[in-house]
Structure formats: C-alpha cells, structure tokens
Amino acid sequence: MKPTITLILSCLILTLAACGGSADENAGGNDSRGGGPPGMTGGGTGGRPSAAVPVQVQPVTRRSISQYLETNGTLEAENEVDIVARTSGPVTEILTEEGRMVKAGQLMARIDEREAANQVAIATVARDEAQLAFDRAKSSWDDGLVSREAYDTALSQLNSATAQLESDEIQLAYTQIRAPFDALVVTRDIRQAQYVTPGDTLFRISDFTPLLCRVEVPEKDLPRISVGQTAHLRVEAYPGERFAAEVARIRPTVDAATGTSTVTLEVDGRGRLRPGMFASVFLRTETRHDVLVVPREALVLDSLGDTVFIKNGETAERREVALGIRDEDSIEIGSGLDEGDLLIVVGQDGLADGTPVSVLGEAAPERAADGSTETVSAGEAQVEGRAAPAGDGAGPGRGGGPPTGGGIPPRMAERIKNASPEQLEQIKQRMKQFGLSDERIDEI
Hints:
Layout: H1 2-27, E1 53-59, E2 61-84, E3 89-94, E4 101-102, E5 107-111, H2 114-143, H3 148-173, E6 176-178, E7 183-188, E8 195-196, E9 201-218, E10 230-235, E11 243-250, E12 260-267, E13 278-295, E14 307-312, E15 315-320, E16 322-326, E17 330-335, E18 342-346, E19 357-359, E20 363-367, E21 373-377, H4 378-384, H5 410-418, H6 421-433, H7 438-443
C-alpha cells in the first residue's frame, strides 16, 4: 500500500513541476531578447499578447543653445554699512524701523543732546568775546597804539574760540543719527532710553541696487570670462526663475592657495532678492544658433555610450548620437538625429530596438499571436501593468533622468554587476552626466 501512495505522490510532483516550467516560459516570452519578435509572447501557446510600451515623445527641433560655466555664490549689497554712535548718551527717539526705506540725510534716531547743546552755548559766548577782543586789538593796531604781539595774541584767541565752537557743534550734530545714503534699514540694534557710547552699532542699512554676487572661477576658465558677459542666477526662494546678471569686474590676481580668481557680477534682483541669499550661478561662455537640441532626460542611462530612442512607426529605434554643448536641461546633438524625428523623452529605460511603443493618451495597437491587432489605450496598458518596462519597479513611462527610489535600469544593473574597474569608472562618469552626486552613485 505504501509503495502505491509514494508512486502517486511522485507523479503529482512531476506534473506540478512541468506546469510551473511552462508558466515560467510564458512569463519570459515578453522579453524582446527572446526567440520571438518584440512585443510577442514566446514559448507558450496560450500566453496573453503583450501591449505596446507607453511613452511620451516630442519632435527634434532646431534652436539656440548656450554653454554655461556653473558655480555658486552668495548675494551681497554694493553699499551696506553699520551706523555707529559717535557720541555718548541715552537714546531719546527712534524714527525708523527694520524693513523701511530711508533717504540720504533722513533723521533715523536721536541721542540726548542737552549736554552737547550746553557746550555749544558756552563755546558761542567764548567765541563772541574773542571776536570783540580782536576787533579792539585790530583798531588799536591800525592806529599804532598796540604792538604787533598784542594783535597776534587777540587773533590767535579768536581762532581758538571759533575752532572750539565748531567742534562742539559737530558733537551736537552727532546726537542726530542720519542716513548717509538711500537704503533699506536691515537691522535696528538700539532700544528707547538705551545708553550708547562711541562705536556702538545703532543700525545696519543696505542699498540693494545693485546686488552683487562674487564667485571664484578657476584660472583655466578665466580666458572664457570678460567684463560685460551675461549670466543668470537661480535661488531656492524662487525655484524655476532666472535672475539676469552681468560680469562687473574681474580681480586681476589669482589666489595661489586655491588657483581661483574672484569674479563679481551685478544682479538684477527685481526687488525680490536679498543679500545673504545663496545662488547657483550660470556664466554664459558660448552660444550656438540653429542647432538640433534635445532634453537631457532623453539620453538613455542604461548604455555606456550616448544613445536615445525615437519612435519609428509603431516601434522604438535606438540611435547613437554625438553630443555638443549643454545647458541646464538641454543638450546639442551633433549627429545621429534629424529634425522632426519623434524623440522618446519618457519611458525609454528598458526599451530595445523594435519594442512596440505607443504615445501616452493615444490608442496603441496590440499585436496578437495570430497577427491580428487589438486596440488598447496606452493608459489602460499602463494601469494593467502589461507595458511596464523591465526595471526597478518604478512603473512604466519612467523617464531617462536620474534614477529615483533607489532603482536603476536593469541593463545598467547587469553591467555594474559584471563590470571591470575601468568599465565601472565609465559607468560612474555616465551617471554623473545625469546629475547624480558621488554619494548617490556610491549608494547604487
């Protein structure tokens, strides 16, 4: 009895194993590298036909593109000063606040002026007495009644009294805190009735027109920079916006320790930028006109060379391209593409030559095993998961930009696994072209 049961169980196990192998073959039939044509199920006889991969495309066009030298800097004001006390006394009045504009000569605060005013009054009396004494001495000198020495003494006393009066008037003026130029009050460092002494900071004022941005440029790039050269800035406070700038001056010396020279730009802050903001700076070094330009994210990350995919009929076609100059988000194509080609800009990762594709939002023909076609919208194919390119599970339609969520295209993963040290360095350089940091590359 037991041998019979054992024989039956063995037959069941063999049957289940055979069914599992057939299922695996059918599941693997979607790989365009298998025996059948791309987009066709292979191996099994009853497999569900695969749908076209949903992608986004845009025509290759001609336009101008500029190359930039990228660096960073901090915004600062051309005129920014601390206003300090130049006399002693308690603050009796504050006439402006932080964030307010002041005009040149405008009264901003007062320091107790009574003691200084008394000194001016005493000095005025002394000067008037010296003036009378000099007038008498001069009259007597003219009549020959006094000596030259008496005349000179009276004149000296008058000059001394006049100088003392002027000094006391200056001290009195120091009790009135006035703006030296048109500016914005950045900080107020005093309080009502606070006792201040000479050198104490009262206010900080800043003239934001123009704003400056000083950047350090390597000496090898200095020949590409000149006064008047245009640039633009980006700041975190206004993402996606560009602020125009221009090279105002270039320091004539190079720092021996860093090998850089300071380049100062004038920035049009449009009333929104502030000193102290950190800015990404893009110095325009070259511009080419009427050239083929594509988005950077169209480049395929899972190849060591520079390649893109175009939509040729109903399938994807890989193209090797020669790259030219780059800006922040676009790149010049020297060869490999023609104007009007439908460039695949989203969904290219995991594609191969001949893979069926459909444009997102359009009806996509689905090829069945008998050669007939079934119209399935790209959106439906994406939802059902039939069009998902092999990859990291990020979902179909993923663009060719830097990998997100910790995954990378499968072909690149395979290359990394089997790469030699030299090839691994090539792969790292390739990933840097897609904006990945060294830390992110090491994580991958």
